[in-house]
Design a protein that fits this description.
Two copies of one chain form a homodimer.
Chain A (H helix, E strand, L loop, with lengths): L6 H8 L3 H8 L7 H14 L5 H8 L4 E6 L9 H17 L3 E6 L9 H7 L5 E5 L6 H8 L4 E4 L9 E5 L1 H15 L4 E6 L5 H16 L4 E6 L4 H11 L9 E4 L2 H13 L9 E3 L16 E3 L2 H18 L7 E3 L2 E3 L12
Parallel strand pairs in A: 1-2, 1-3, 3-4, 4-5, 5-11, 6-7, 6-8, 8-9
Antiparallel strand pairs in A: 10-12
Helix pairs in contact in A: 1-2, 1-3, 2-3, 5-12, 8-9, 10-11
The first copy, chain A, binds a DNA duplex through helix 2 and helix 4.
Keywords (chains A, B): DNA-binding, Transcription, Transcription regulation
Protein name (chains A, B): HTH-type transcriptional repressor CytR
GO molecular function, one term (chains A, B): transcription cis-regulatory region binding
DNA sequence: CTGAAAGCGCTTACAG
DNA sequence: CTGAAAGCGCTTACAG
């Protein structure tokens, strides 16, 4: 453990005060060109990096933002998703010279929530979080504290929260319409995500809207939980006497579609000949299965990047006019719906 | 943004000095029972949480540890892996009242490495990192700085580094022997991970050792990169004229085995009837495919947990006797090798 | 224009 | 035994 180099050490080497060295390092006009260069050289030679605690204490900020992962969402959102979010936060964080802290929203030994400690202790200047189940108090209490918070996702109950989101309902509607309008599907099934999560609700709603406005008679829903296994289970439920009474299935995410694949295959049901299927997310798997899966690309990394930028804005400018953003989504057409993409 | 509650505010409410309040809160015997209770009550009422910067500056530590993700390993280790590592670090970190910082090892604008800034700025007290490619200077320079560092994995070139690892060579040897001894495989293929990563090298070595000591004549190796796609590619290479000249395939990880599945299936090659296959990792997918995949369970979360504990030791006690640990691994027998597990 | 004090919040070593 | 100063490293507002 090399002993840390302080500003004082840098200043001493040059023969100025720490205050002068500090100003020199940030290019203050009141420091002469010559001493500025001398200080910079000394700092470089000594490997000076400002002490975070000293700087944070003085500047009254943490130089860090936190990603708080709701316990209840660990099993609903994929590891892929969180890694995309994390990496999306990285570049804006680096640009603001801030660290990224990861925390769950567990209760601490002291009985308060981890995110509260993080903020109250000023270990982070703001928080990015994702939806938990809709009846979880967590998000409400998080937003209720008035701290700088940016949420990822759609929060109809929190109109004042700053949220970066995609229109799950519209996207789900769009991909369902593709099945109906472009492929002539008439007997539809939706394998939903947990319906106590907004994402599950919205994607189901889009499916139902599309079916209703096209006058589709068969538009069933089986509730899953976004995990691969539940996609498989849904298929076992849906297959009656070895046959599937649907010609199109809209899965609420790719993982469930992937889980469905072997079950359909084992039942001798071909994709897309016997049933056309679509997924949602496009975090990686959908591209790699056979057939590859037509899906909605959720730009998780971009969402998180914009969320981080927005959070830094919020932190810098205080509570300001709601700057929620809804990002466009696009469908990626692959073979599972019966399309024959160019690049295939 | 509620204005933070300081110790001074707590002290003022009780009518003692901040110093006394500080001692009261940590149960110093020199504070009377009565005032201790009064201070605790006031702290609770005001929602006092110690300011991290103030405490860190005074205590000369960061109250945080960092997971540094080498750029070069993002594509070799899975998102699953990193999320397991992150969650493994969570509990020890909370127990030590420390934050978990996530960083890549990118270069900063100032030209030094991110991990150096983190340590030199004392934003983290120590680092946990995973292997990058073996010719990457990164790990060497990280360890060379003498900072508290715990590495995840096997580092034959760094005998003095503190590492928490599993014996990839032994595990790979063991699962290969299972194919040979228990299932009578004679014509073996290993689909390796990148051979510029130690993990790839060790898992290949275990395979070769097992084959050699059993006197197996066919023990081929195709190099992949741990991604699903490269498993599929390896199968396309291995299948000659529609047939596979192997009766057993040892994949260096589950993802590549998963990628191989559809290619084998499309070629009409049955598992395990025509070829027995095994994976490595057991982070989730291997359990869910059809057939499910016999694999080595890598306890990534436990590894990271122990790494974090070890790191806190290292931080507290300074550089001390190497406390590297090698964890045992276990094979999970499923259907892809021809076993018929009880729970299936 | 520039030198050097003051103070962010905390905790411990010191003085009484 | 206890009160209150000193100081961690930094930066800006102030005094000269």
């Amino acid at each position: 453990m090399p002993k840390p180099v302080t500003l004082k050490a840098v200043a001493a080497r040059v023969g100025v005060t720490p205050a002068a060295a500090s100003m020199a390092l940030k290019g203050s006009p009141r420091i002469s060109e010559a001493t500025r260069e001398a200080v910079e050289l000394a700092a470089k030679e000594l490997g000076y990096v400002p002490n975070a605690a000293g700087r944070n204490l003085r500047n009254r900020h943490a130089g860090a933002i936190a990603l708080v992962v709701p316990n209840s969402s660990v099993h609903v959102f994929s590891h892929q998703y969180f890694m995309h979010v994390l990496s999306g936060m990285t570049i804006p964080a680096a640009a603001h010279d801030a660290q990224v802290i990861v925390s769950t929203n567990a209760e601490t030994a002291s009985g308060d929530m981890a995110y509260e400690r993080i903020i109250r202790s000023q270990a982070a200047d703001g928080i990015i979080s994702t939806s938990s189940s809709i009846d979880d108090e967590y998000i409400h209490s998080l937003v209720g504290t008035g701290l700088p918070v940016v949420l990822l996702g759609n929060y109809p109950d929190l109109p004042d929260a700053v949220t970066i989101w995609i229109d799950d309902t519209a996207a789900s509607r769009q991909i369902t319409e593709h099945l109906i309008a472009d492929h002539g599907c008439q007997r539809l099934l939706h394998v939903a995500g947990s319906l106590d999560h907004q994402t599950g609700i919205d994607r189901r709603q889009g499916f139902l809207d599309a079916a209703a406005s096209a006058g589709i008679e068969t538009a069933d829903v089986i509730e899953g939980d976004m995990n691969e296994e539940s996609g498989a289970a849904a298929m076992r439920t849906a297959i009656v006497d070895g046959a599937l009474p649907y010609d199109g299935i809209v899965f609420a995410n790719d993982d469930m579609a992937v889980g469905a694949l072997p079950v359909l295959r084992d039942a001798g049901i071909r994709i897309p000949e016997d049933v056309r299927i679509t997924g949602f997310d496009d975090f990686g798997v959908a591209r790699l299965t056979t057939p590859d899966i037509t899906t909605i690309r959720v730009p998780a990394q971009e969402i998180a990047g914009i969320a981080a930028e927005t959070l830094f804005d919020l932190i810098a400018n205080g509570r300001h006019d709601n700057s929620s953003q809804r990002l466009p989504v696009s469908t990626t057409y692959r073979h599972s719906c019966g399309c024959t993409p160019d690049n295939a």
